Amino acid sequence: MGTITKALDLLGYFSRTRPSIGLGEFVRLTGRDKATVHRHLVELEQNGFLEQDSVTRAYRLGPAILRLTSVRESTFPTRAVLRPLVTELSEDLDELVHASMLQGRILSPIFHADPKRHGTQVSFDEAEMQPLHATASGLVVLAFADDALREAVLAGPLAAHTDRTITDPEALRARLVEIRAAGLARAAGGFDTEVASQAAPLFGASGAVIGALSVAMPSGRGTDDRLESFRARLCAGAARATVSLGGTVPPDLAALWAAVSDPRDTKRA
Amino acid sequence: MGTITKALDLLGYFSRTRPSIGLGEFVRLTGRDKATVHRHLVELEQNGFLEQDSVTRAYRLGPAILRLTSVRESTFPTRAVLRPLVTELSEDLDELVHASMLQGRILSPIFHADPKRHGTQVSFDEAEMQPLHATASGLVVLAFADDALREAVLAGPLAAHTDRTITDPEALRARLVEIRAAGLARAAGGFDTEVASQAAPLFGASGAVIGALSVAMPSGRGTDDRLESFRARLCAGAARATVSLGGTVPPDLAALWAAVSDPRDTKRA
C-alpha cells in the first residue's frame, strides 16, 4: 500500500456510527505504527481533509471534502454521471435502459438510452413520474426501501394503471419479499400492458436505496429466458452506478449479485 | 511539500470552470515531473478520489468524495460545525453571538450563544426568521448577495419593523454599497429598537454568500467604539466559519478583513 493510499485509507474509517476518531483508535483500527499514522493525520489535517477537535483531540472529516463534492456535483451531477453507463448498457443489451431516482414516493426518470435495433420499441417519456407499485423500477425500490416508505406506500391508495397492476397490499407485500430474495425485479404489464421490464436498485452513501436501473422492452421480446440472460449485466451495471453516485451496495445484496453468472461467461467457458 | 500533500493538492485544481484535467495539463499546472504526477493520479483514482473518463483519459473528481461528504454532513451538520465557533466568539466578546443561514429571501437562525455577563441582555429567538433589510445579518447578506437576490428584495415590499428600518430602496441601495466597502454591517434599532448588532457574511463552496455571523447587544452597550473593537475578531470568526462550512471568502474581501487590526494586538505591541 503506497503512502497516499495509506493516508486516504484513514478517511474511510469514518462513518455515521464512528464520526470522530482519535490517534490511539486509528492505531488500533489500522494496526500501523503510531508515528506513521500521526504523520498521515497531520498532513490530512493541514490540507483540510480532517479537522481536530480542540478539546478531545479526536479527528473528524474536514471541510475540504465539502468543497470538492460541491465542485463534482456542479460539474458532474447525477445525470452526467449516469449517462455513459446507461448508454453503454443499452448498447450491450440491445434494449432501452433507463435510470430513475426516488423523490418522496415516486420515481423520477433521470436518463434513458435506446439503441433502437428492433422493429418495435418502448416509447419512454423522461417527464413521466413512475409509481412505486406498478413498474419494475418502482417495485425494486420499494422492496429495498426502509419500512417507513414501504408501509406508507402499502397503506395506499394503490392505483390500478392496468388490469395487471398489483393493488392488493398483501399480494404486493409477498411480491416484495420475492424481489428482495432475487436481488432484482421483473414486471410485465403493470404500468403499460405492452411493456416488460427488469430493474435493479441503486444505493446512496448511507446504504439507503435511492433509485433504480432498468431495462424495458415490448412484452413480446421480454421473455423469461431473455430477461434471465440480462440479469448479471443489469446487476453489474447497478453496482457500478451505485459506486459512481458515491453509494454503497449493502454487503448481502452485493454477494447475491456477485453470484449471478453472466450467460456469456458460461458460453466462453 | 510531502507526498500526501502533493497528491491532495492535485484535487484542488478542479473547479466549476475546470471540471476535468488531463495528465499533460496537470504537469503544466503544477510544474512537477510527469512520472510523479502520473503516479499520484493513479493512486488517487484507485482510491475513488478521481475518475478517469474512458474516452478522453482526462480525470475528474471521484465518488469517494461524495461518500465522505455524506458522512460529515450527517455527523457534523452546519449547526454542529458552527456551535463551538459561535460559543467561543461570544465568550471572547462578552456578548450574544449568533449564526444564521440564507433560506430563499430570509435568514434562518442556526445557533446562538450568550455568556450573559451583563445586567441586560438581548432575548434571542432561534425560531424567528430575520428579514434581509432590517438586521445587520440581513444587510450584510444582502450587500454580498448576487444581483438577482438583491434586486428582488429591493423591489419590495420592505416592511418597517421599527421607525428606524430602512424602507426606501434607494437609501437601502446606498447603505449596501457602504457595507460592501466596510466588509461588515452595523445596524441599530432596525428590527428591534433596543438592539444594536454587527455582522459579517459567510460564504459557501462556490463563493456565494450563504449566511452571517453576528454579535448583538442592548443598544446602550453597542457604542461605535465598542463595536469597532469587535471588528477584527468578528471578521476572523466569519473567515473561520466559512472555511469550516467548506466555503471560500472572496479574495478581495479576505484581503479587506486581513487588514482590520485587532485592538488587542495594538495594545500588546
Q: What tags apply to this protein structure?
A:
homodimer; about 270 residues; alpha+beta; Arc Repressor Mutant, subunit A; Beta-Lactamase; 2 domains; six-stranded antiparallel beta sheet; two-stranded antiparallel sheet; 11 helices; 8 strands; about 45% helix; about 15% strand
Please describe what this structure looks like.
2 copies of one chain form a homodimer. Chain A is α+β, with helices and mostly antiparallel strands and 269 residues long. Chain A has 2 domains: 3-64, Winged helix-like DNA-binding domain superfamily/Winged helix DNA-binding domain (Arc Repressor Mutant, subunit A), CATH 1.10.10; 73-268, 2-Layer Sandwich (Beta-Lactamase), CATH 3.30.450. Helices cover 46% and strands 17% of the residues of chain A. The first copy, chain A, has helices spanning 3-11, 23-30, 34-46, 63-75, 78-93, 136-144, 147-154, 169-182, 224-244, 251-258, 263-268, and strands at residues 50-52, 59-61, 96-103, 106-113, 130-131, 185-188, 195-203, 209-218. The first copy, chain A, has a 6-stranded antiparallel beta sheet. A two-stranded antiparallel sheet of chain A has the order 1-2. The longest helix of chain A has 21 residues, at 224-244. At the A-B interface, helix 1, helix 3 and helix 4 of A face helix 1, helix 3 and helix 4 of B.
